[in-house]
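The protein record passed on for reference:
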Amino acid sequence: MIAKHGFGNASMREIAKTSGLSVPLMYKYIKDKDDILHLITTMCMQDIIDFFDTGELFTGPADQNLEKAVDRYIDYIGENRRYINLVYSETRSMSAENRARVFDMEREFMGRWKGILDKGVEQKVFRPMNTELMANYLYFLCNVWSLRHWSIGKFPESEIRTV
């Protein structure tokens, strides 16, 4: 509902109806639309953080770990494009408190990318670099698959992965 009509145009009544819940039941668990958006965002971020925490990405050489991370994240984005676009387009609509929480989760996620890059620099697989900055670049470049899908969706996913 929010993804289709936008955060500002979706009423709690419409959200409840779409969710198959009564308005009173919905208000039992959340305060307002801001909470719904925060819950959606938190769910998306936690899903991908959980993958990075499985340890799968830290078992081999850093270049292979980075390739696995990019592949998995692009898979995630492909499966969750609507959520990713919602989060990017509506984060500004969140309360300052919830927006700060989302940014904290994003910084936490950046730490996973940074860890892979730090390991690569340490192993001399990657040249010395500002790994925090590069982690942000990688994260955003992967998100382009969702944010600019209208433009690059014509390319095969295999090509997106190798750029």
